[in-house]
Amino acid sequence: MKLGSNIAAVVTGGASGLGEAVVRKLAAAGVKVAIFDMNAERGEQVAKEVGGVFCRVDVQSDESVDAGFASAREAHGQERILINCAGISKGMKTASRDRKSGEIRSFPSADFDRVLQINLVGTFRCLARSAAGMLGLEPLEYGERGVIVNTASVAAQDGQVGQAAYSASKAGVVGMTLPIARDLASEGIRINTILPGLFATPMMAGLPENVQQSLAVSVPFPARLGLPEEYADLVEFMATNGYINGESVRLDGAIRLAPR
Asked: What is the DSSP string of 4-37?
């Protein structure tokens, strides 16, 4: 698919981090971009800077997602590109013992479910609705109607201590990629997933500097944190290369996460 002003895109989680980098990359290529996010202040600012539109969307809600797509399509028309970057992380061991009190506790089911609802079900909720909208588009070259890119994590394959919920949610995103690609193949809609490693995002910036440095040097090569722009570069490649479909690709500097 060739990017340009005749193409509309939706980016979930587009107000910051990897999602923001994608918004800026697509907008720089002339694409009309709608940002789905819960952070209205930051989302409005980014949308203003790139000439896009912001929609406050909770990916856990059918009604919120439907309203977001309605607003985005009213502004830009039916999107041909959907990038799913919205997600959260909740770290806690499945069962553990407090070192001081000796109290035994388990990972709350409600917290586990919330991670899955946002990272996995929210991703599916958005892509299913976007794909349904794409079905009404006229096909482009080689019959292509649209493309979807999801965000998983290297934790989908080598999750660390305390990442059971996060890893399960991201492994689910990876696991559904090929079946969905097969579901949508006859309609000319492609879907791929990126598994980012350690990236310089606002979440990472919240860690102490020494921790960030330790994580950076753990990457085989290059021994640094990934740049959000590098993630956006891969998104652009997946959007424009019509022969990549049903793939889940690690973007991680060859790192394999240690147990902790």
From this structure: STT-EEEEETTTSHHHHHHHHHHHHTT-EEEEEE
pLDDT tens digits for 45-59?
A: 999 999 999 999 999
Q: Is residue 260 part of a domain?
A: no
Instruction: Round to whole Å and give the CA distance between 174 and 158.
Output: 13
Residue 195 lies in a domain: yes
First-last CA distance in the chain: 41
Mean pLDDT of the 133-157 span = 97
pLDDT in tens, 198-250: 999 887 887 788 888 888 999 999 999 999 999 999 999 999 999 999 999 99
For residue 27, what are the domain limits? 8-199+228-251
223 lies in some domain: no
Tell me how far apart the alpha carbons of residues 40 and 45 are, in angstroms, rounded to a whole number: 8
Model-wide pTM > 0.85 = yes
**Distance, CA of 218 to CA of 229 (rounded, Å):** 20
Tally Cβ neighbours within 10 Å of residue 241: 13
Q: Residues with catalytic annotation?
A: 166
Does any domain span residue 209? no
- For residue 178, the domain's CATH number is 3.40.50.720
